[in-house]
Structure prediction request, 523 residues.
Amino acid sequence: MTSNVKNNQRVLKQTNNDVQPETTSVSRAKTSNDDPAELVLKDFLGVTKDEELLENLKEKNGDKSADKKDEQGRSSQAKIQKVLHYLRQNIDNKVRKHFVPREISVGPLRAGNAHWLKKELKLGLAKTFIKDSGTTADSFLAEIKKNIRDLKTCFIEGVIPQYYNDDSLARLLFLDGCAVLQFIRSYVSENLEEFNINSTQAVFIQQDLFLFENQIPFKVLTLLMGVSDMGATGKENEKPSFYYKASIIQFVHENNICATNNAFNYYRKRDYHQMIGMLEKIKPVHLLDLLQKVSVFGSIKDVEFDEDETDTVKIVSKWSCFTDELEEHGRRVEAQSLRSIQELKSSGITMKLSNSRSLKSVTFDTHCLGIFGRIKLPALNVNDSTVRKLLNLVAYEACLDSKERYYSVISYLNFLDLLIDTEQDVKDLRKARILRNALGSDAEVAQFFNTLGLTYLPKPKEDHFERIHNKIEEHYVRKWEIKMARIYIDYLKNPWPTLAFFLAPAALLLTIVQTWYAIHPRR
Prediction:
């Protein structure tokens, strides 16, 4: 970690409100004969039976469609769960608030807080989803109930509150799934006004859908999209599920942590069929898992995986920073010895923006006969939204087994932490257009990365950038190349020292000549 962390408690400037206290809405004043599952759903959703929820989804003017009546062996690390305890205990409330919803809860882990439940908003979104599909509400609910045992295997054991039985959990997943699909489609089409969602709420809900503890199984969305096609005819790209899948793809790409504001414009011209086909192949665990893949590879269509894996997609290490053979010089350089940007600059190593939108695009190369080095990094928009996504991606990767994932985001942040020591390092990255700072001053950004690395980032089980670390360190310790680079930086790059270098001997020669003639004047 960096050596210049002056105040570990000051992490970053926050713009959001204080964390809402997490309280349960379950009534404790009920008799012992009441069903706990019915108590919680009566308080959370206001229903205790399927018919009551379906009745709430009917249009007030009479919705005709509403009137009609795994065991996959996933390992526990890839399942929906809470942030690991050792990560929680190392952070303060300023960072902890990035793990709680700002606007809406999704799934059973956060449903106990009435402040985030937003039942009426969810009902409004779900009504539109069901109406647009042309399928009955009970058909969607029946599909979720039919698969509830398999869906429960997507959660780590014991994380679902005990007051949920299969029926109450199915109702919650059904309502949340419909609401999420409709929100995403309305968000990308910029049509949220009909749900009275303003721009600030839209941004907060968008961020909430990528919180680690605010997830539902992606299979819930897949099942609901499948049911939406039941009454559809025509080509695949004319069915409702096509538009919902395309919306999910656009939504996640626009949230890529390496993406610019117009990141998805490049992909809009691409064949959606290919990207939807890849979405179906990789079978993400949830939306945050899909965001991790897109951030690592830049696009769903570029995700590389081992098709032999049965439990979850295994991201393979075909990174450019992995496959380059490391030149051996009789020793192995420790990755922890990577220097800060200011130290690297003194040895002729510069920073350059990579045109890629993927974390795997981080590279190091040399030029001018190996005298100078160049580190290429993708652009990172440093703002409050990015901070929330980064922290939740770290929490997700920290739960993964090395056989399932490589620790892409954790390795990337550790790499940045080693590069960034002072505000001057941030300034250099900003000048290179690698960091686009909307978080605060350069000093605050440096403090954020330093504190993040010191108190929160776990040591990655698989460091993606170890070979890059080694290459950079080997370049740094090569004395001859460094000396040549420093001569160039100190003299040739600045014309005045160079001019002085040549004028000084000339002046000395003129002085000698003048002295000689003074002693031996011409006769």
